[in-house]
C-alpha cells in the first residue's frame, strides 16, 4: 500500500493532502496569520547541529522514560487535537490504539469527538485529558471528576487559546462560523465523495464531552463549536491554576508556555510539568519556536520538572535535539493527523513507527545508548564551530 511506501512524515502529509477535501487538509496543515511561527517551529530544528561521539557501544539503546507518572516506551507523546473524526472515521480510538501499540502517551482534547469515558475504556496506555477552564467552573470541576473516575493519568491545561487564532486558510476556504463554502471548496468536497459521505454520516460535529451541558443553548453544529469556544474563561490567571491543581491532585501540565518566568510560575502554582508550545503556530503568530525556548526553561526549572517540547517535530532527530537541550519528551500533533487521514489506525501506526525508528537510528549514529545520557554538548547552534 502507499502507507508502506511512505518514507517519512512528509510522505504521509502528501497522501493526506490527496485523500482529504482541501478545506479539511488546510484545517490540519495551516497556521495563524502569515504562518511565521508554523514555519519557524520546523526550521528551528535545522538551526541546531548534531555533534556525535565515536566508538560508543550502541548495541542496545534505552529510550524508555516516564511521563505524567507513567512508564512510556519513548519520550514522545501525541498532542490533543479537536475535531479528529473529520479526518478519519476511526477518530480518537484509532489514534489511541496506535499510541498504545508503541507504548506512548496520548492526550484527548476537550474538543475531541470521542467521549473521554469511551476512550479510557478502549485504551490502556498513559492517557491525558486536555482541559480548559470554563466560565462555568462547575463544568471544569465535572471534567476533573470524570477524568478521575475514568482513570486518566494526567491533565494538560491549554492556556494559549483565550481567543481563536486567525487561520486565514480556513477563512478563504469558507471553513468559518457560519460556514461560507466557496464553489472551489464545494468542488473539492464533491471530488472526495468517499470522505464526504463517511464523514458526514459519522456526525463529526458532535462534541460528546461537552454537548450534554450546552446542547440546549446552542444552534447548529458549527455554532456549537463557536459556542463552546466562547465559554473558555478569558479572565483566568495563575490563581485559577492553583485551583485546578487542587481539584485534580495529580500530574498536571500547563500547555502553551514560552518563557522561563511562566514555567516557574506554573510549577509554583501546582503544575508538575510544562508544555512549551505555540499551539503548532495556530494561535499567536510570530512567537519563537518551542525548541529554541527549551534550554532557558530547563535552566530556570532545574532538573526536576517535566518539560514537553511541542511543535514542529517531523523527524526523529528533532526529538534528539529537544532532549539534548533539556526537554523530557516531545509531543506531536500534525504528524499523527497526517497518518490518520492517510490511512486510519494503520496510518497513525506508520507515523509513529517512522518517528521512533528515526529517533533510535539518530541516537545510535550520535553515539548515545541511553536518552539519560543526552546532553547539551550533543547539539551546537549552526554556525558555531
Ligand atoms: C491542535 N492543537 C490543539 N491543542 C489543544 O490544546 N487543544 C485542541 O483541541 C487542539 N486542536 C488542534 C487541532 C489541530 C487540527 C491541530 C493541528 C492542532 C494543538 C496541538 O495540541 C499541538 O500543540 C500542535 O499540533 C503541535 O504542533 P505540530 O506537532 O502540529 O507541529
TrEMBL record:
Which CDD domains has this protein been placed in? Answer: alpha_hydroxyacid_oxid_FMN
The answer to keyword Transmembrane applying to this record is no
Write the record's keywords in alphabetical order, separated by commas: Oxidoreductase
Cofactor(s) this protein cannot do without: FMN
What this protein is called in its record is Alpha-hydroxy-acid oxidizing protein
* Family indicated by similarity: Belongs to the FMN-dependent alpha-hydroxy acid dehydrogenase family.
- Residues in domain FMN hydroxy acid dehydrogenase? 1-384
Q: Which organism is it from?
A: Sphingomonas colocasiae
InterPro entries with a match to the protein in the record: Aldolase_TIM, Alpha-hydoxy_acid_DH_FMN, FMN-dep_DH, FMN_HAD, FMN_hydac_DH_AS
Q: Does the keyword Translocase apply?
A: no
Query: What are the TM regions of this chain, as residue ranges?
Result: none
Amino acid at each position: 500500500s502507499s502507507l508502506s511506501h511512505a518514507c517519512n512524515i512528509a510522505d504521509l502529509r502528501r497522501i493526506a493532502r490527496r485523500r482529504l477535501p482541501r478545506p479539511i487538509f488546510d484545517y490540519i496543515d495551516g497556521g495563524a496569520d502569515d504562518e511565521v511561527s508554523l514555519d519557524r517551529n520546523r526550521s528551528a530544528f535545522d538551526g541546531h547541529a548534531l555533534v556525535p561521539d565515536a566508538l560508543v557501544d550502541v548495541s542496545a539503546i534505552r529510550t524508555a522514560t516516564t511521563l505524567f507518572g507513567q512508564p512510556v516506551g519513548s519520550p514522545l507523546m501525541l498532542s490533543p487535537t479537536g475535531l479528529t473524526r473529520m479526518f478519519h472515521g476511526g477518530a480518537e480510538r484509532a489514534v489511541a490504539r496506535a499510541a498504545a501499540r508503541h507504548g506512548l502517551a496520548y492526550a484527548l482534547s476537550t474538543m475531541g469527538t470521542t467521549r473521554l469515558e469511551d476512550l479510557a475504556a478502549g485504551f490502556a496506555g498513559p492517557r491525558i485529558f486536555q482541559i480548559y477552564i470554563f466560565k462555568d467552573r462547575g463544568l471544569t470541576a465535572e471534567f476533573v471528576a470524570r477524568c478521575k473516575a475514568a482513570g486518566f493519568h494526567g491533565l494538560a491545561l491549554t492556556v494559549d487559546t483565550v481567543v481563536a487564532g486567525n487561520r486565514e486558510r480556513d477563512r478563504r476556504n469558507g471553513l468559518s462560523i457560519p460556514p461560507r463554502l466557496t464553489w472551489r471548496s464545494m468542488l473539492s468536497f464533491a471530488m472526495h465523495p468517499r470522505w464526504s459521505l463517511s464523514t458526514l454520516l459519522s456526525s463529526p460535529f458532535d462534541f460528546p464531552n461537552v454537548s450534554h451541558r450546552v446542547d440546549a443553548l446552542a444552534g447548529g453544529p458549527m455554532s456549537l463549536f463557536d459556542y463552546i469556544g466562547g465559554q473558555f474563561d478569558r479572565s483566568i490567571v495563575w490563581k485559577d491554576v492553583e485551583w485546578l491543581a487542587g481539584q485534580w491532585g495529580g500530574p498536571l501540565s500547563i500547555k502553551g508556555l514560552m518563557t522561563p518566568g511562566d514555567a516557574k510560575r506554573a510549577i509554583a502554582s501546582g503544575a508538575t510539568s510544562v508544555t512549551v508550545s505555540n499551539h503548532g503556530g495556530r494561535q499567536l503568530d510570530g512567537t519563537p519556536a518551542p525548541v529554541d525556548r527549551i534550554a532557558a526553561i530547563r535552566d530556570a526549572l532545574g532538573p526536576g520538572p517535566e518539560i514537553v517540547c511541542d511543535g514542529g517535530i517531523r523527524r526523529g532527530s528533532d526529538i534528539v535535539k529537544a532532549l539534548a537541550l533539556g526537554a523530557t519528551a516531545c509531543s506531536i500533533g500534525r504528524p499523527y493527523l497526517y497518518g490518520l487521514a492517510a490511512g486510519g489506525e494503520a496510518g497513525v501506526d506508520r507515523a509513529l513507527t517512522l518517528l521512533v525508528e528515526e529517533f533510535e537510528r539518530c541516537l545510535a549514529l550520535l553515539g548515545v545508548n541511553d536518552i539519560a545520557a543526552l546532553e547539551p554538548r550533543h547539539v551546537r547552534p549552526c554556525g558555531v564551530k
